[in-house]
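Renewal narrative, Specific Aim 1. Our central claim is that a sequence can be written position by position from structural information alone. The example that follows is taken directly from our test logs and has not been curated for this report. It begins with the structure tokens describing the chain, in the order in which they were read.
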């Protein structure tokens, strides 16, 4: 994923927009589930897609994760790469502080 553009001003169930893929294709997205600050899920191109979680561990650390529907199990490799990238970004940001 290269980027996401949300239409409207609020991130809420029913919000929609587009996702720009790494191969240059844009797909429609819609937020299907939301627990503010903790979890959200979306539908991409009218197909249930990943759900995203953020869980505090302590004052300085958190845990993130992805849920993937069975039909998208091959996408777990992409999710693993994303988690590694997020860890690298979080570690670099923390080192700067």
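The sequence written for that structure reads:
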């Amino acid at each position: 994923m290269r980027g996401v553009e949300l239409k409207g001003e609020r991130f809420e169930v029913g919000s929609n927009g587009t996702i720009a893929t790494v191969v240059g294709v844009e797909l429609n997205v819609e937020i299907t589930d939301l627990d503010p600050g903790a979890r959200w899920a979306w539908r991409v191109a009218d197909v249930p897609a990943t759900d995203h979680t953020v869980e505090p561990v302590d004052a300085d650390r958190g845990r993130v994760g992805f849920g993937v529907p069975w039909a998208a199990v091959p996408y777990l490799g992409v999710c693993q790469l994303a988690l590694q990238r997020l860890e690298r970004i979080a570690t670099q940001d923390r080192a700067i502080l």
